[in-house]
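not sure who needs this but someone in the group chat was asking about Ig-like domain-containing protein from Jiulongibacter sediminis so here u go. i didnt clean anything up, its just raw.
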Amino acid sequence: FTQAISGVENTTGSHISVYYRAIYDCELTNCNKATSAAVEVVIAPKLNVAISASKGTICEGETITVSATGCQASLTWNTGETVASFEASPTISVWYVATCSASGCDKVVKDSVEVIVNPGIAAPSIESTLTEICFGDSTVLTASGCTGDLLWSTSETTTSIIVKPVSTENYSVVCQSGVCSSLVAEITITGYPVLEAGEVSGVSGINCSGYNPPTIQSVTSPSGGKGVLTIQWEMS
């Protein structure tokens, strides 16, 4: 006779062995029970898998984490990965499919998740009327090449902005479209203190031409400005 075996569930994550024996009995009271030799039945792990992505919609260039849980057997991905979790940076919309299988079993379990990739946005370029100015002066920064909305580090959103740095300052701008932003474009405007004149002094009194010429000298140094300082004397 044939006996179907059911009701054994393996949740250990590996194959287990279950042994079955047949016990024979008869109606005669003087019959002894007879037991057959044991038969080993190997039970494969229960198959199950569920996958997820850290974000379902991303911008080109972003990195996501794709994970699978619940598979206690062999896990494979359509990307070739065999680990439970991995990072990916897709450039186009893609489906990730995980398959959970066990050796010796024809049945497999699959799950999938789609990640939608929005096209990347090119970073704008910045031009300035001046890149070196004195404190208190202004310069105009202009962004170009943005197909979306601009956002400056100053919180302004216009194509051109006027800045008056009081020191050497970095300014940046990004281009935004929907949920995506470009890489940051930056420019440095170098500011210099305004040149302040020093003080001069000389010998007072009457000077006779050709005799006892007075001495005129700088008593305090000028400050500010940029580069090598030159002094030109002027008589009035």
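also The first strand starts at residue 16 and ends at 20. if thats useful
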